[in-house]
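The authors assume throughout that readers already know how a fold can be written as C-alpha cells. For illustration, here is how one protein appears when written out as sequence plus C-alpha cells:
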Amino acid sequence: MSDGASYILLVDDDPSNLFLLEALLRSHGYLTQSAKSGAEALAIAAPSSPA
C-alpha cells in the first residue's frame, strides 16, 4: 500500500454482508479484501503480519 490508503480485511460468512461492506468502505477510499471464515482470514493475514 504505497499510496497511503488503509487496508481492511473483512470477515463474514454472509456474502451479502461482505458485498455491502466492500462497497461502503471502497467508496470511502479503503482497500479491502474479504474472507468467508476465520481460517481463511488467518491465511490471508499471516503473510502480512509484522515479524
Notes: Residues 7-48 form one domain. The chain has one domain: 7-48. Residues 14 and 36 are 7 Å apart (CA to CA). Strands lie at 7-11, 31-35.
